[in-house]
Amino acid sequence: MLSEWFMTRYFIKFVYNKSFQFNKLNYRKFSTLSMKMSSVKIGTHNGIFHCDEVLACCMLKILPEYKDAEIVRTRELSILETCDVVVDVGDIYDPKIHRYDHHMKTFSETISTVLKNPNYNSTIKLSSAGLIYCHFGHRIIKQLFPEITEEDTEAVFTKVYDNLITEIDALDNGVSMTVDEPVYRIVTDLSSRVGKLNPPWNSNLNQTTQFTEALNLVREEFLSFVNDCVHIWLPCKVIVEAAIQNRFQVDSSGEIIKLSQACPWKEHFFAIEKHLNLEPIIKFVIFYNNNYMVQAVPVKPGSFVLRKTLPAKWGGLRNEKLVEVSGIKECVFVHVNLFTGGNKTEEGAMQMAREGLKIE
User: Fold this and answer.
1) What are the tens digits of pLDDT across the range 276-298?
2) What is the DSSP code (8-state) at residue 176?
3) Which stretches of 246-345 are DSSP H helices?
4) Helices (H), the chain
């Protein structure tokens, strides 16, 4: 009974419905990630499994043609030859015959070389997950979210690659995050959690059962990530676009924008700014989040260097003292590093940003 409860607890899938929501349903009702017999076969290696081939299989099984496919785990070439698609084994990379291994000495494919798109310049070598994502990723996203535009599909594709697939590829290919020795280890990432599902050396756990559990774990993670991209990350773009379009109505300088609501704005901001080649460049962003917040814009994505800061004499001050020093009513705080501050009113936040613009 305990084993059955454990299996039921984890063997779930997210299915997409017309309202773009994922519903958790008991795994017994669906065969999407089962290992059942089928006329369509996905081949991968047996033995210890890793996140890349597990994710590759999961992504394939989102597509209609592989939805009910049997997953065949073997290294026997004669058996692999009977499979419709083979991932992470076989010493062949040839998308024309659906062979997606990356272990050959001569293999050096990246997303840049596979897609031949100048917008992608990654040097991370692909694993089987990356190969499947490059060749099927756009279709997978459209299968899950058929109503989003081609432009949004491309945006989600890039977001998922940059923030999920790249990590899986790099870890599987032994690419370090840092040049120097890291000061701590991360052992709770998706690849580590998949690795821990392999039967321990001193257990009698069934390898096929554990592989199926890994499939469901990875599928849940992948679908949740894509869902967040579509429902949380993508809508921010509309908010940032509108703010940029209306910037001269907010302030005649065109260097301050106001978001209609708080959201993760930076990634979309820099992409839109680059696309539109904006002049003058925007220095401050204002939005409401309990107070009216002022945030300074970095010189580039990920940088701590700012285009403009709030006045240095405001740094670390709060409430009455900040009001006294700044001469602006209703001030709440300014961070000691001058990149953000707050005011109880929108007009007060605008005044704070305008004072920041005056700094040479």
Assistant:
1) 999 999 999 999 999 999 999 99
2) -
3) 247-250, 266-276, 319-326
4) 2-10, 51-60, 77-80, 111-115, 128-144, 150-160, 166-172, 190-196, 207-228, 234-245, 247-250, 266-276, 319-326, 346-357
Calculate the alpha carbon distances from 332 to 146, 263, 284, 288, 289 in Å. 45, 21, 17, 13, 13
241 within some domain = no
Host domain of residue 259 = 246-357
Q: Residues 6 or more apart from 320 whose CB is under 8 A from it?
A: none
Question: Both ends of the chain: CA-CA distance in Å?
Answer: 71
Q: Let me know whether 42 and 149 are in one domain.
A: yes
Same domain, 264 and 163: no
- Coil/strand/helix, residue 299: coil
pLDDT at 328 over 80: yes
Quick check: bond before 118 cis, omega within 30? Answer: no
Dump pLDDT digits (tens) for 199-246.
Answer: 999 999 999 999 999 999 999 999 999 999 999 999 999 999 999 999
Contact status, residue 118 vs residue 162, Cβ threshold 8 Å: no
Backbone phi, psi, residue 232, to 5°:
-115, -50
Q: What is the pTM of this model?
A: 0.82
Count of structural domains within the chain: 2
- The predicted pLDDT at position 16 comes to 34
The DSSP 8-state label assigned to residue 165 in this structure reads I
